[in-house]
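Minutes, project check-in

Agenda point 3 was the complex the collaborators sent over. CS summarized: two entities, 559 residues total, and the question is how they sit relative to each other. Sequences were read into the notes so everyone works from the same version.
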Amino acid sequence: MIDFKSLRNDFPMLRNGIKMQGKPLVWLDNASTTFKPDCVLDAISNYYTHETSNSHRGDYDLCYNMDQKIAEARNTLAKLLNAESKEIVFTAGTTMSINLVAFGYGAKFLKEGDEILLTEAEHASNVLPWYKVCEMTGAVTRFIPLTKEGRLTAENLEKTIGPKTKIVAVAQVTNVLGYVTPIKELAAVAHKHGAILVVDGAQSAPHMKIDVKDLDCDFLSMSGHKMCGPTGIGVLYGKYDLLQKTDPFMTGGGMNARFNMCGKATYLDAPVKFEGGTVNLEGIIGLDAAVKYIMNIGLENINAHEEELKKYAVEELNKTGNVTIYNKDSEAGIVTFNINGVFAQDGATFLNSKGIACRSGNHCAKILNDFLGTPATIRASFYFYTTKEDIDVLVDAVKHGKEEFLDAYF
Amino acid sequence: MPTFELNPQMMREIIMDHYSNPRHKGVPAGEGYTKTHSSAVNCIDDIDIYLKSSDGKVVDAMWEGTACTISTASTDIVCEQCIGKDYKDSLYMIEQYLKMIDEKEYDDSVLDEAIVFMNTGKQAARIHCATMGWTALKEMLEDLEKKGN
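CS then shared the predicted structure for the full assembly.
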């Protein structure tokens, strides 16, 4: 049994008595970003105090050690995803990873009339790169219908996919509703029709065990800062032959084999051909520490804990009779709701006045609102360090939300 | 000074009244309106403001869009309080309001109901909501003043 509560002592943001609006901070915006444990901060600090060097072909020990550290981090990430380490590309985060696939692979291979399939529940970062690629190539985006409750099913993909579909791009866990998408089944359908499956793993990788070999997805993107790592670092996993076919969209030092004055250059193999320039070294070191930390807790344990929190939150929020919940049956630790009679943004401001960090809005999935039938919602999202007591503070606040929400301004 | 007693109960009533029954919300049917759009990356609010003026005076001001309680009520109030005023008085009132939100010294004698937003600065994330209608009208009025019509 993991003692999740004691893990809070590993996090300065949780043990330092941080206050917001004069109240103890209750952090329920983990889908947006997560706190960092000491081991991550120490690893980053140690890089600057004891290990500073650039990477790539240094002739001295510190640089050699740096290259070793990067190789180790690639191995750690490969272990997390059950991938090969040469299939792990370091990027700035999920947005950059998806853009790399869109521009390095999509723009290279898509032709006029080809189709990219998305869903209405996608984050902007899994919609806009594809819109741009369509502008460039003449390909078109289409949307796979969701079920009435907001799920993506293999059945609906099968109904939508056609001979012109080349790319299916979907989130493994959607950032507003928190449904877990059946990636393995979707991959089978996509492959049967000759399309590739590009997975946005930003909301899944921090919270559940991912086995890319078992899922058979073609690309998967993730962000370090949503899994206790630093900001500005993330990963693109790709099947190696697909990575080799993908063009780098940044060229420069560290990624070329040779070039001459006639304008000819040859590039190194994946993954380093995508890592032009000095990479985010402190980010890679911090991410390595973060992934080791959460693997030590166990992704299955994290997942089970969050599922329990989700059930508890839905039950307790429902008991108040004051809320509408839009995703009570979804698996992830995300509760999307409104305080009845209170506009989402006002509700979130009211929660701020109680020290609770939740997010209001359309959560970067701006095309989902028509589906939900409300212009905006409040999102409370959990991580393994979230406690039932945190949820109790939220529940207690919403009990009085309708009467008191304007008090935040007086 | 406002003509009502300033307490949370009264402030709540005024804000909720303009939120539940905004007097100046809607797209104007008549002609002669100029329109401007106001929205923000960090919040949901997304509104259009309509202004009609004649002989240096605000004849009508309206707004339409999606907005939270604070932006709805504050925008409705600025529309209400500009109507009938000339540009100079309108701009003076808006300036005092923006100073109040910024927690600087201000002249409360011209603010009337808008005084209810005096503590909005406590919620830093909502300052934009309390000012979006006001700054949009300010820019429109300054523009009209420059053009001299």
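Noted in discussion: Residues 51 and 62 of chain A are 7 Å apart (CA to CA).
Follow-up: revisit at the next meeting once the mutant set is ready.
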